[in-house]
Amino acid sequence: MYYESCLDANDTVETLGAKPMIDLIAKLGGWNVTTKGFSVSNWTLQNTLQIVQNKYSIGALFSYGVGEDDRNSSRHVLQLDQSGLALPTRDNYLNKTAEHVKVLQAYLEYMTKVGILLGGEPNVTRKQMQAIVDFETKLANITTPSEQRRDEESLYHLMTLAELQEKANFIDWRQFFENAMKVVQKKVGARQQIIIYAPEYMSNLTKLLEEYQNTTEGKITLNNYLVWQTVKVFTLCLSKPFRDAYKGLRTALMGSDGADEPQWRYCIQDTNNVLGFAIGAIFVREVFDVRSKEQAEVMINNVRNAFKRNFDNLKWMDEQTRKLAIDKADAISDMIGYPEFIKDINHLDERFENLSIRSDAYFENNVNINFYNLKKNLEKINEPVNKTTWSMVPSTVNAYYTPTKNQMVFPAGILQSPFYDPSFPSALNYGAMGVVMGHELTHGFDDQGRQYDKNGNLNHWWKNKTVERFKERTKCVVNQYEKYEIENNRVNGNQTLGENIADNGGLKAAYHAYLDVAKEEPEPKKLPGLDLSHKQLFFVAFAQVWCSTTTKEATTLEIEKDSHAPAKFRVIGALSNLKEFSEQFQCRLGSKMNPVNKCEVW
Predict the structure, then answer these.
(1) What is the pTM of this model?
(2) Do 61 and 154 share a structural domain?
């Protein structure tokens, strides 16, 4: 039904036009851009923020949610962080290169078009939208860049709501969270604990908001910003003129306006995003090969054994830390394929029973889904953590590691070609899927994951001297990747450090796991048309899964925002550090792919 509403075969979305959004703006208390006679005389930041955040789940000014306590991962706790920029990165606002200026101009155009479509007068709308852009630029200025947010210890600040009130008094926090928790019938007191991941941002935000709350014009801009944050989220659920308005901004950001993509393809993606476990149930039932799950278990254990065995070669580790690291590697649990509940139709129905979806109400469906997801998240407050819950849906072609659960997850979606196929020779499976497994395993020991112990708690379990040596080695990785350049942009070595450590460690562990397996198997035939040994094919399989094409704009955005290096450098970077690669392809020492000084962490 959701998919049907997205396809909109009955043209309901087109017939309704702007109406669903105009109704929503009225529920938010009106908008100076489009509401005749709008007044801020009775307006309060508290009230509007509560509606925007607690009813529509929009992370304006800040974002909050319920998650595992980093220092006590068996319990759920409230968490608060910086948020509120409509564009993907702070660089989009602060960096004055031609590309960034183009994005900011396209953003203003998009905002203005949407405002006019909703009934705003062109000149007045542009002026007010410019004031929102100026406010967001000030927000960007106090937002900490992602590469400076990698030390989990220094980000973690546990305090009570009363202490938060002293730090950031721009709203009544107890009232705000009481309002949020009403939907799950939970109580919140002044002693309620909350983890703040950006205390400095919250202090600076308080000063910024004070400046705006002192004048009528400032209050209007604040309300305009909060309403715009909500409008922008739901604009793509409106009629074609609204969707077309976004094309210019999409082109500036991605280098393509998406016009060539058929609606059914967009709608499949969209349905998967919002109802992934329901789609996952169909996917698993129809196409997932159960043998893949069984063989993946064997592969993971082989990769884990190779990873642990390598600890003996790491001269920089002291004996005690090495022993604890082996314990942690053994304790990493893995979940493969899908959560069991999706095979139980009744359980699946129960999960979605409070979600209202109609095949002719695309806009309302999205509003309902936002609220449903928020409510599901808030229900966890003060509840114990279930370490077997999935946060990625089964049909996803991806994998992840969660430090607080010390767990890696490989959805059914990735256990297919080119990553994996039960009929492929081991070299191909280990070169592709085996490296992914090694990658997720290594995340438990990257610059962030290593700060968590085997129980998933933020804990100083390394000897200080070993930490120093580890940081020396990670500096090598930072410097190596900073030298890579694409589309006149250098890779950010700090921002991508964790992923680069995981790529390098994962490649080495998977290769040695493959060598172990190859010893037990009969010598396989060469693949037709390829004069490559199976050891060489292992590396080809690794490189092949990152084979991709992308626009100049998307590459620029990726370098600014993504914690992964661009695909090309994920391949070149990891392979050039592995002496076994150079041995198999006979790269001359000192050549590009076999540098004299290689980086090695794990």
Answers:
(1) 0.89
(2) yes
